[in-house]
Structure formats: C-alpha cells, structure tokens
C-alpha cells in the first residue's frame, strides 16, 4: 500500500487509484454479479497495485454491494429516472460516491464529489459528470449538514 510519510495515512494519489479500480470492479459486479473476492483477486493479479491504497479499494469494493439497498434508497429521490435506467458507469460512480458520502465522513464531501466527477469524466458519457455532480451535491446537502454548516 502506498503511504505518506510516517503517519501511515494513505496518499491522495493512492486513494484516487483505489477509487479508479473500485469503480471498475463495482461496474463488473453490477453487470456480471460475480463473486467480490474473485473480482478483487482478478484486479490484484491483472493490475499494478503497488501504488494503490489496497485497504480502501477493498473497503469500497465490499462496502458498496453490502450497502447497495441503503445507497439506492438515498440516491433514488435525487435522480430524475429509475436507477435501472442509468448507465452502469454512472450508477457505479454514484454508488461509490454515495458510499463515501454516507460511510466515510472522514473524507470531505467536496473531495467525494470531485473524485466522482473526475471518474465520470474518465469513464462516463460526455456530460455525465454534470449529472453526477448535481446528484452528489444534493446528497451532501442531506447527509453532511454539520460539515456544510461549518463551511459557512
């Protein structure tokens, strides 16, 4: 695992890579319904994971499916269509972002949104990042009220 100096805190780059691989793994899980341990093993075997925050990758990969119903419940009122009608890429990124927003309050909401937007720009349709940004911003308004109040 890539770490920063002395404090065992993962670097931002290592977390970014963990998210990048995790969204691809979640996408694979959504489409194929494959076993998560198998997906994780394949990613570790097929990719250079030396500079990836592997603990975070694992947490997201297993956490999103475990919390899928909760995440979807939070996302559904924030979107203008059924979740099943979204592209699998958008849905994977929104679930990842919602997981971080709801379960990783140590990650600032602006970081969650920015990382999801960047993932969408990389993997999503041309303007999908605007949609993802709006949905996660609305989720932050509902779930990070204390953090938002402190920013004012």
From TrEMBL:
One of the Pfam families matching this protein, by short name: NusB
Question: Which GO molecular function terms does the record list?
Answer: RNA binding
Kindly state a single biological-process term from the GO annotations of this entry. Answer: transcription antitermination
Is Amino-acid biosynthesis a UniProt keyword of this protein? no
Top-level taxon in the UniProt lineage: Bacteria
An annotated GO cellular component of this protein is: cytosol
Annotated signal sequence is none
UniProt keywords, alphabetically: RNA-binding, Transcription, Transcription antitermination, Transcription regulation
Q: Residue ranges of the NusB/RsmB/TIM44 domain? A: 16-140
The family line of this record is: Belongs to the NusB family.
What functional role does this protein have? Involved in transcription antitermination. Required for transcription of ribosomal RNA (rRNA) genes. Binds specifically to the boxA antiterminator sequence of the ribosomal RNA (rrn) operons.
Q: Please state what the protein is called.
A: Transcription antitermination protein NusB
Q: Which organism is it from?
A: Bacterioplanes sanyensis
Q: Gene symbol? A: nusB
